[in-house]
């Protein structure tokens, strides 16, 4: 039986290949279009890398250029001289991202699974409850007061994790994924076989929903990795700030000094000369992007397989 | 169930919106109430305090623009000293340049437990606005005059321009809401001259001194011809240039992209009345402005001004780069004492500064760095004592500002030489208080502070010192004008668009209610001058 099924599949695949075959000129054109799009995505990043290796003098004289007049490792030397602070921030970023993603995904799966179950009585209310916060927020000042004074989110790691724990958008993605990939029959079947609710969720639903979970996990991980705003609001202790905020701090300071130079006075020039310039900023960008770029392929595998795997066969 | 729920949520939403709109008045009430409460409370504790030893308290101090990663050595020493003096433990919150604006405003609005805030006329927790909101304690409140009680030394040490400039209309009436810092408080706009280049063409500094902007034409022409097409002799910052040429000043409160108001000072003597008296004018509608724009356009067309100066994105970078490489003849500079020496060192050629007016103190510069006591502070009395000590005790101030001697700096022949450790502890020197207490830095000379006091202490005050425009009542008009002003002002000031388009600009200003703004500003000025006269 299995064998014959495979045979049919194989035959179909063969025929599809012939059917999907396109003419060579079309293939060339499509390749060119996709290639161009790919270049558009990659070139800015390559540019950033080149700038990070350009000497400050040649940036000042010629502006940014793909072939700089003078190459230099200055920026990276400066970055690695930051020493402790850099590694500390690297560690913080990883710590926040990993812990935050784990917790967020767990909460997200719980919440959206409950919303997915049609036999859950308050399903409508909790859907609305979640969706409402996508449209209306409490505003910055009240959020700040609640976080800092009520929840004590000040100068600790939880200040950078707790406010971002639940993203309504991700809950809705996850719920929709459950709805499209998990048939109610499956859950009913599990219940008939004597599976409890937790068992059903972890042993039956979760393995099927892996691609969806991977997608959500990637979104969360990106959000945690890229977040600097929460650190800016709640964290003053330099030993706890993540890499992103280290970059934003220098960036914001340069902008601010330029904007207010007339009020801050002549000392500003001195301050400016202390602050990192363009090449250094780009070097920091490179350091920030590398880890997350490395994490992409792992998630990608799940996301692609999510498109092809189904749970009900036949 | 569902209906009830939706009704409840709608009501919540609506009240949320309404509360959001009516913030100010409500908040004022609350903060005033709390401030009254704290005042009465502190009166009680004060009586006790006088009789026995001072109770130990912790003061939180929010500073601007610091670059501090390790303050342990400094705080250990400072707290030891402060404990002995006023039994206080200090907990500074080091704001960095970039995030101070967002964070300090949130901390104030959120009622954070902070005793002393840095405030000034140009940061987001702007002195005038937040004093009006009731975020800062009035320090010379007739019922609880903290200055008289604890800080007479400090007050007597400050030049009168500063105490005058700090006296404003706040939530508790016309008074002082923050302690002004004694720093480079005077404004003096100067022509920044590239001396070697000037002399190369046979001119001397006297040729610049004896003429003005309208007479630069010949010098600029000679140098432009000699240096070639890609050389732009005038290196200007549009807004500053306009103020320099017209002798108009920044009107505090009218900041940012919207410089709509002008106050003309007397270029010979800034303390005397200017050509229009104590009146605010619509900046772009005066004959002086028209004349300036026409001349600037002429210079621009002759190739004296770099087109990059007309675009806000490129102006600053280009200007800084060209200053460093010396690709200019005459630049604009807002001067600080000793800047020509500093600039000459940095750029590697002789730079001279030719002032347009004598040094003067306006509201913006007199409120350049201040320390306010928050109405949320539980110990305003002790905060005031600390501020008094900070501004009158050179040991404490030098310790907090420069760090520990032998660690962060060394004294060499009476001058301060910073060590590498200073990189871990460098607060904004001018942002703390009375900088005249500091020992001179290397290269400044041992008599630097005397020169400093002579220059800044004697700067004359403009007649409307202390006035700040409160834009709240005309915010609609200002909002409508924001884009218009951004579109024209810089371009006109640098000559990058035709001067004829000034009329078109004025037309748009009029159509969007600039008259109302000017009238409102003048009404406020009259009210302020009346209060000041008393």
Count of helical regions of chain A: 17
Order of helices and strands of chain A: HHHHHHHHHHHHHHHHH
Shape of chain A, please? globular
Mind summarizing the main beta sheet of chain A?
Answer: none
The average pLDDT value of chain B, as a whole number, equals 83
Low-confidence stretches of chain A: 309-314
Oligomer: heterodimer
β-strand number of chain A: 0
* Rg of Cα set of chain A: 26 Å
CATH topology of the domain at 53-184 and 363-465 in chain B: D-Maltodextrin-Binding Protein, domain 2
The CATH architecture of the domain at 83-275 in chain A would be Orthogonal Bundle
Which pair of protein chains has the largest interface, and what are the residue counts? A-B, 43 and 49 residues
Outline the secondary-structure elements:
The complex is a heterodimer of chains A (314) and B (534).
Chain A: H1 2-20, H2 24-52, H3 56-62, H4 74-81, H5 84-116, H6 123-135, H7 140-150, H8 158-161, H9 168-181, H10 184-192, H11 197-208, H12 210-226, H13 229-234, H14 243-259, H15 261-264, H16 267-274, H17 278-308
Helix pairs in contact in A: 2-17, 4-17, 5-9, 5-12, 6-9, 9-12, 10-11, 12-17, 14-17
Chain B: H1 2-21, H2 23-51, E1 57-63, E2 67-68, H3 72-86, E3 88-94, H4 100-109, E4 116-119, H5 127-133, E5 140-141, E6 144-145, H6 146-150, H7 152-157, H8 160-166, E7 167-170, E8 173-176, E9 179-180, E10 189-194, H9 195-200, H10 205-209, H11 217-227, E11 234-235, H12 238-246, E12 248-249, E13 261-264, E14 281-282, H13 287-301, H14 315-325, E15 330-334, H15 339-347, E16 351-355, E17 360-361, H16 363-366, E18 370-373, H17 380-392, H18 394-402, E19 409-412, E20 415-418, E21 425-426, H19 448-457, E22 460-461, H20 475-494, H21 501-511, H22 514-533
Helix pairs in contact in B: 12-20, 20-21
């Amino acid at each position: 039986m299995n064998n014959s099924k495979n045979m049919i599949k194989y035959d179909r695949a063969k025929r599809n290949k012939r059917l999907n075959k396109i003419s060579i000129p079309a293939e060339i054109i499509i390749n060119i279009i996709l290639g161009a799009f790919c270049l558009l995505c990659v070139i800015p990043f390559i540019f950033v890398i080149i700038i990070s290796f350009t000497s400050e003098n040649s940036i000042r004289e010629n502006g940014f250029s793909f072939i700089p007049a003078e190459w230099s490792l200055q920026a990276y030397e400066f970055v690695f001289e930051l020493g402790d602070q850099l590694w500390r921030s690297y560690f913080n970023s990883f710590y926040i991202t990993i812990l935050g993603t784990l917790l967020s995904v767990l909460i997200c799966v719980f919440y959206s699974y409950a919303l997915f179950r049609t036999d859950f009585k308050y399903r409508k209310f909790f859907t609305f409850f979640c969706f409402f916060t996508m449209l209306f927020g409490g505003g910055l000042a009240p959020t700040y007061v609640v976080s800092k004074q009520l929840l004590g989110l000040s100068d600790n790691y939880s200040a950078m994790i707790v406010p971002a724990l639940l993203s309504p958008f991700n809950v809705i993605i996850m719920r929709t994924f459950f709805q499209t990939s998990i048939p109610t029959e499956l859950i009913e079947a599990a219940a008939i076989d004597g599976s409890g609710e937790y068992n059903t969720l972890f042993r039956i639903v979760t393995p099927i929903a892996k691609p969806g979970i991977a997608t959500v996990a990637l979104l969360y991980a990106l959000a945690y990795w890229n977040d600097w705003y929460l650190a800016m609001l709640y964290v003053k202790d330099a030993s706890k700030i993540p890499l992103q905020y280290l970059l934003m701090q220098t960036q914001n300071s340069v902008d601010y000094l330029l904007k207010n130079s007339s009020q801050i006075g002549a000392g500003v020039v001195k301050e400016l000369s202390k602050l990192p310039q363009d090449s250094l900023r780009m070097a920091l960008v490179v350091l920030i992007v590398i880890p997350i770029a490395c994490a992409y392929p792992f998630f990608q595998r799940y996301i692609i397989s999510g498109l092809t795997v189904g749970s009900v066969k036949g | 169930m569902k209906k009830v729920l939706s009704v409840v949520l709608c009501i919540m939403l609506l009240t949320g919106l309404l509360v959001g709109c009516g913030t100010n008045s409500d908040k004022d009430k609350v903060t005033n109430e709390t401030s009254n409460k704290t005042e009465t409370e502190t009166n009680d504790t004060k009586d006790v305090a006088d009789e026995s030893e001072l109770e130990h308290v912790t003061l939180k101090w929010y500073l601007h623009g610091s670059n501090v990663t390790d303050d342990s050595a400094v705080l250990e020493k400072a707290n030891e000293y402060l404990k002995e003096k006023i039994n206080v433990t200090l907990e500074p919150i080091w704001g960095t340049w970039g995030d101070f604006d967002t964070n300090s405003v949130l901390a104030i609005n959120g009622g954070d437990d902070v005793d002393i805030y840095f405030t000034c006329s140009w940061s987001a927790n702007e002195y005038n606005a937040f004093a009006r909101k009731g975020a800062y304690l009035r320090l010379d409140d007739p019922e609880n005059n903290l200055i008289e009680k604890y800080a007479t030394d400090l007050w007597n040490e400050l030049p009168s321009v500063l105490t005058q400039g700090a006296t404003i209309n706040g939530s508790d009436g016309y008074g002082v809401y923050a302690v002004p810092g004694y720093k480079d408080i005077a404004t003096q706009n100067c022509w920044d001259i590239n001396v070697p280049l000037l002399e190369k063409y046979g001119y001397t500094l006297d040729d610049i001194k004896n003429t003005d902007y309208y007479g630069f034409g010949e010098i600029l022409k000679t140098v432009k011809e000699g240096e070639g097409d890609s050389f732009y002799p005038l290196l200007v910052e549009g807004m500053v240039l306009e103020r320099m040429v017209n002798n108009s000043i920044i009107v505090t409160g009218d900041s940012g992209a919207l410089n709509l108001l002008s106050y003309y000072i007397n270029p010979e003597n800034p303390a005397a009345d200017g050509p229009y008296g104590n009146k605010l004018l619509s900046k772009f509608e005066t004959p002086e402005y028209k004349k300036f724009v026409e001349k600037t356009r002429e210079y621009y067309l002759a190739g004296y001004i770099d087109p990059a100066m007309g675009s806000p994105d490129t102006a600053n970078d280009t200007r800084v780069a060209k200053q460093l490489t010396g690709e200019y003849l005459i630049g604009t500079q807002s001067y600080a004492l000793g800047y020509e020496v500093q600039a000459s060192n940095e750029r590697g050629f002789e730079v001279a500064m030719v002032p347009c007016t004598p040094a003067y103190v306006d509201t913006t510069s007199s409120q350049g760095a201040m320390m306010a006591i928050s109405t949320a502070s539980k110990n305003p009395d002790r905060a005031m004592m600390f501020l008094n000590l900070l501004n009158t005790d050179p040991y404490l101030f030098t310790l907090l500002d420069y760090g520990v001697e032998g660690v962060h700096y060394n004294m060499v022949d009476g001058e301060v030489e910073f060590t590498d450790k200073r990189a871990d502890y460098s607060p904004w020197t001018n942002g703390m208080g009375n900088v005249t207490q500091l020992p001179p830095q290397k290269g400044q000379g041992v008599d630097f502070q005397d020169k400093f006091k002579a220059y800044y202490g004697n700067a004359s005050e403009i007649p409307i010192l202390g006035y700040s425009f409160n834009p709240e009542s005309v915010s609609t008009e200002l909002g409508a004008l924001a884009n218009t002003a951004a579109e024209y002002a810089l371009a006109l000031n640098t000559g990058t668009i035709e001067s004829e388009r000034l009329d078109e600009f004025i037309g748009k200003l009029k159509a969007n209610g600039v008259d109302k703004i000017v009238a409102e500003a003048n009404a406020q000025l009259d009210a302020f001058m009346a209060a000041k006269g008393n």
